[in-house]
């Protein structure tokens, strides 16, 4: 496992000045950064989905405690400082939008978690209270069993939501928070 991690880290250069891992992307034009189907102004354009996948993959391979930089290589004759500034702003805006979506997803998950726990406790309490009734009909007995099953099922769903689904979303949030504090810059294409 450790060997695979070292192999993954060897794929990325490090900036000797900042000691940060550099995620390098080679471009022929500024438009390659953005989704071709998105007609929004540059500052609001979505990143190219394949680029976003690549950045997320790189974020998972580089340990979260390590610094990260994004370097976009562009042919020298096509470099334009104004377009670079706008592109960097757009990339950062895109990361903020993804973080906003993640925040909404986490809020939704926490609401569902609270609802599952409350309903589970109501079902389980009702089942335990009804079980102590001395004369129980067949229908009440079936209802009690249903309350037990439903209560434990909802409690498991809450457990699963918190420890599995929400955990993955929080990890993704950490990756994008790291992108927000990362340096993003353009350089001339390597020869």
Task: Give a structural overview.
- The protein is of the alpha/beta class.
- The protein has helices spanning 2-10, 49-61, 81-131, 138-180; strands at residues 13-14, 21-26, 68-74, 183-188.
- It has one domain (2-188).
- The chain has a four-stranded mixed beta sheet, with helices on one face.
- Strand 1 and strand 2 form a beta hairpin.
- Helix 3 (81-131) runs antiparallel to helix 4.
- The longest helix is centred in the middle third of the chain and has 51 residues, at 81-131.
- The mean pLDDT is 86.
Compact summary:
The two termini are 34 Å apart. This protein is 61% helix and 11% strand. By secondary structure, the chain is an alpha/beta fold.
Summarize the helices and strands and which ones pair or pack.
Elements: H1 2-10, E1 13-14, E2 21-26, H2 49-61, E3 68-74, H3 81-131, H4 138-180, E4 183-188
Parallel strand pairs: 2-3, 3-4
Antiparallel strand pairs: 1-2
Helix pairs in contact: 3-4
Strand content: 5-15%
Main-sheet strand order equals 1-2-3-4
Q: Mean pLDDT, rounded to whole units?
A: 86
Number of strands: 4
Overall body shape? elongated
End-to-end separation in angstroms reads 34 Å
Q: In terms of per-residue confidence, which ranges show pLDDT below 50 for 5 or more consecutive residues?
A: none
Radius of gyration: 25 Å
Structural class of the secondary elements? alpha/beta
N-to-C order of helices and strands = HEEHEHHE
Query: What does the main sheet amount to?
Result: 4 strands, mixed
Note the total helix count.
4
Total domain modules: 1
| Proportion of helical residues | 55-70%
């Amino acid at each position: 496992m450790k060997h695979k991690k070292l192999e993954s880290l060897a794929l990325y250069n490090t900036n000797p000045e900042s000691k940060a891992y550099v995620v390098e992307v080679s471009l022929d034009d500024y438009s390659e950064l953005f989704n071709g189907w998105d007609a929004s102004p540059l500052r609001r354009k979505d990143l190219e989905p394949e680029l976003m996948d690549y950045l997320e993959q790189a974020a998972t391979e580089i340990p979260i405690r390590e610094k990260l930089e994004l370097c976009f290589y562009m042919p020298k004759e096509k470099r334009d400082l104004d377009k670079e500034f706008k592109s960097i702003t757009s990339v950062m805006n895109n990361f903020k939008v993804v973080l906003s979506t993640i925040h909404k997803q986490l809020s939704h998950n926490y609401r569902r978690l609270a609802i599952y726990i409350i309903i589970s406790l109501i079902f389980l309490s009702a089942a335990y209270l009804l079980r102590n009734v001395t004369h129980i009909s067949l229908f009440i007995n079936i209802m009690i069993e249903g309350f037990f099953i439903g209560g434990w099922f909802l409690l498991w769903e809450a457990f699963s939501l918190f420890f599995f689904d929400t955990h993955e979303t929080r990890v993704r949030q950490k990756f994008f928070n790291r992108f927000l504090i990362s340096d993003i810059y353009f350089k001339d294409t390597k020869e």
